């Protein structure tokens, strides 16, 4: 099973209501980990890219709460591009997958649910180093 095979897409429940829609996410239930950390990305200037890293341990679920962007995921060789454009769609990025976020529309808010607290040592931010790491996994 390759790293990209571990990427999962979720459609969270959507309670449609004339007063406005509602979705909910429970850790360990709708995402397969206890949520230890939440962060969100917003006010992204046109043309900017976010992400550009992989994790050793942390799992992330990304959701475009409003607006849209393209999520690029790679294992160093193959790339998949997932359009993020629905408030109840989540994509799980497993440890070892390199992610980057592109083509943000104005006003996009991206929510990230994480399995681990923030630890800079858990990040691989250099793509060459990442490629070496992926090779070491296969060896
Ligand atoms: P970074 O991981 O580069 O952002 P992104 O992947 O979303 O583009 O993080 C930007 C800065 O914010 C960096 O200095 C680390 C800090 N940061 C925290 O302190 N805690 C966090 O939970 C996150 C995600 C980032």
Keywords:
10 strands; 37% strand; 1 helix; mainly beta; 139 residues; 9% helix; five-stranded antiparallel β-sheet; binds thymidine-5'-diphosphate
Characterization of this structure:
The chain has 139 residues and is mainly β. The two termini are 14 Å apart. The chain is globular and about 55 Å long. A hairpin with a 4-residue loop joins β5 and β6. The mean pLDDT is 97. The chain contains one helix and ten strands. The strands form two sheets. It has a five-stranded antiparallel sheet with strand order 1-7-4-9-2, with no helix packed on it. Bound molecules: thymidine-5'-diphosphate. Thymidine-5'-diphosphate binds next to β2 and β3.
Give the helices and strands, then pairings:
Blueprint: E1 8-11, E2 37-41, E3 50-55, E4 60-66, E5 69-74, E6 79-84, E7 89-93, E8 98-102, E9 109-114, E10 123-124, H1 127-138
Antiparallel strand pairs: 1-7, 2-9, 3-8, 3-10, 4-7, 4-9, 5-6, 5-8
Radius of gyration using CA atoms only: 15 Å
Which range does the strand content fall in? Answer: 35-45%
Q: Ligands in the structure?
A: thymidine-5'-diphosphate
**Main sheet strand line-up:** 1-7-4-9-2
SSE order, one letter for each helix or strand:
EEEEEEEEEEH
**Coarse structural class:** mainly beta
Distance between the termini: 14 Å
Compute the number of strand runs: 10
The tally of helices reads: 1
Query: Are there runs of 5+ residues with pLDDT below 50, and where?
Result: none
The quaternary organization reads as single chain
Shape: globular
User: Percent helix among the residues?
Assistant: under 10%
Mean pLDDT across every amino acid position: 97
Mind summarizing the main beta sheet? 5 strands, antiparallel
